[in-house]
Amino acid sequence: MPWNDKFECMPVEKLNKLQIKYLKETVAWVCERVPFYRQRFEKIGITAADIKHTEDIAKLPFTVKNDLRDNYPFGLCAVPMEEVCRIHASSGTTGKPITGPYTIEDLNQWSECMARNFWAAGIRKEDIFQNAYGYGLFTGGLGFHQGANKIGCAVVPTSSGLTERQIMLMKDFGTTALGSTPSYALTIAEQAESMKIDVRKLPLRVGVFGAEPWTVAMRKEIEERLGIKAMEAFGLTELSGPGIAFDCEAQDGLHINEDHFLAEIVDPATLEPLPLGEQGELVLTSLQRRAMPMLRYRTKDITRLRREKCACGRTLIKMNKISGRSDDMLIISGVNVFPSQIESLLLDIEEVEPQYMLIVRKKGYLDHLIVKVESKKEIYDAGPQKRTEIENKIKGHIKSTMGVGVEVNLLEPKLLTRSEGKAKRVIDERPKN
Ligand code: DLL
User: Fold this and answer.
1) S-S: 268 plus which of 113, 281, 323, 330, CB 3.0-4.6 Å?
2) What is the mean pLDDT of the chain?
3) CA 95 to CA 77: how far, in whole Å?
4) Shared domain check, 314 and 370
5) CA distance 171 to 190
6) Does ligand 1 have an atom closer than 6 angstroms to the CB of 111?
7) Ligand 1 centroid to 390 CA: how many Å?
8) Given 325, 359, 392, which residue is the final one in a domain?
């Protein structure tokens, strides 16, 4: 039984009507309160009355990251500051951060979405939940914290980092559930191994991971190394944070909290809406947020939507695991390559560790991809001939599956910097023009 079956199992037709009602309200709300939206809508002559079906959302303009930057910090805020009770921000790698203000009601809704996420992961009030997402401006820390509180678990707010201490507390407190990025979960697994602690023998039984792309192969690796079920959370700061979508016991796609978020898939090149089931860029609209609603926000995340009966009984639409971001896609000798595809292939190779880095350079006019991956200790110690053999094996596997030629460098174990938050897996050294 889901956390909130009224909404999670609502008949699709009813859900659809609810979405239209909320969408109209949101459009009217921002038109009244945010000059940015009012001017845009006036220009194209659209009002809330023009929204009759969910497909009418395609009449609205997209919102992009730069709109948030141009209106930094609170230009898109739809309530006076006295009604704002929290402000998160995403650090971003360049320029000003993206701000995320919340009213108290926005925070309650966010906790509700996170509680659904935890519940679907099998987390209950008896659990001891160690939250190794970074606390602070990042939405992972407090977002997970509130959701776990709502379920009633004992939350251990370790935040990320200080890995030895994480493991000590995990053991001493009898932690049963963990929240972290998938890459940090692996860092924890590795550190525990080097401390000669077998996490598989500890009470830890489930983790909720997200905030970065990770493949099914990586999920299996985490499940095996930590001896847990690895469940997922998806979300972004612009639309509240984690809890937008989550996987259930079927572990076959993530249910989107559709009474809170309306999802579309568009072609990232033409921006035309794509038919249900096709892969493209995920575009999200918030339906109930009040401090900073988002209309048709282009996430850059690549996935596809599936409306199907799920074994768990939820009627909420599913999205596939994110395969990458459109801005992370590499074009190597004319072939589109997502780092996640390479990750998946590397995890097929038993002689390597799941620690890798991709470097893209120009070689003459062509793009050249270098895959650096750590080898298992016994392979590295076996000498240069063995290493070359494994490098060729990986090269061949990538070439035969993806059709791209890459250079492979097998690294000494533990050489790459370990992640405590979002892993940086790609270094693009191509000149920017
Ligand atoms: O990463 C919110 C979050 C925190 C999600 C904790 C899940 C768990 P941002 O820092 O704004 O917010 O980054 C959002 O991270 O557009 C995706 O590219 C990526 N992302 C988030 N969750 C997943 C996931 C948080 N489950 C960006 N799979 C998004 C793949 C994810 N990518």
Assistant:
1) 281
2) 96
3) 20
4) no
5) 15
6) no
7) 33
8) 325
User: Cα separation of 121 and 115, whole Å?
Assistant: 10
Q: Is 213 in the pocket of ligand 1 (CB under 6 A)?
A: yes
In this structure, the answer to whether residues 282 and 355 fall within a common structural domain is no
Looking at the structure, tell me whether residues 92 and 148 fall in a common domain.
yes
pTM (2 decimals)?
0.96
Q: Are residues 270 and 132 in the same domain?
A: yes
Q: For residue 134, give the CATH number of its domain.
A: 3.40.50.12780
| CATH code: domain of residue 415 | 3.30.300.30
- Asked whether residue 169 is assigned to any structural domain, the reply reads yes
The response to whether residue 146 sits with its C-beta less than 6 Å from ligand 1 reads no
| 3-state secondary structure at position 387 | helix
> Dihedral (C-alpha) 207, 213, 219, 221: value to the nearest 10 degrees?
-110
* 278/135 same-domain check: yes
Residue 19's SS3 state is helix
181 CA → ligand 1 middle, Å: 9
For residue 300, is it within any domain? yes
Which atom of ligand 1 is closest in space to residue 235's alpha carbon?
A: 5
175 Cβ below 6 A of ligand 1: no
Q: Are residues 183 and 122 in the same domain?
A: yes
Pocket test for ligand 1, best of 63, 138, 301, 340 (most atoms within 8 A of CB): 301
Q: Is 19 in the same domain as 50?
A: yes
Give the number of residues written for the chain.
433
Distances (CA, A) of 119 to 102, 143, 249, 331: 23, 15, 10, 40
Question: How far apart are the CA of 253 and the centre of ligand 1, in A?
Answer: 15
Q: Please report whether residue 414 resides in a domain.
A: yes
Residue 433 in any domain: the answer is: no
Of 309, 325, 341, which residue is a domain's last? 325
Whether residue 253 has its Cβ less than 6 Å from ligand 1 = no
Q: Do 266 and 345 fall into the same domain?
A: no
Return the ligand 1 atom nearest residue 209 CA.
8
Q: What does the pLDDT read at residue 364?
A: 84
pLDDT, position 93: 59
Q: Does 134 sit in the ligand 1 pocket, CB within 6 Å?
A: no
State how many domains the chain has: 2
Boundaries of domain holding 193? 1-325
**Residue of 102, 234, 255, 286 to test ligand 1 pocket, by largest number of atoms within 8 Å of CB:** 234
Contacts with 343 (C-beta within 8 Å, 6 or more apart), sequence order: 214, 215, 217, 218, 354, 356, 425
Give distance in angstroms: CA of 45 to centre of ligand 1.
Answer: 34
Q: Whose CA is nearest to atom 1 of ligand 1?
A: 211
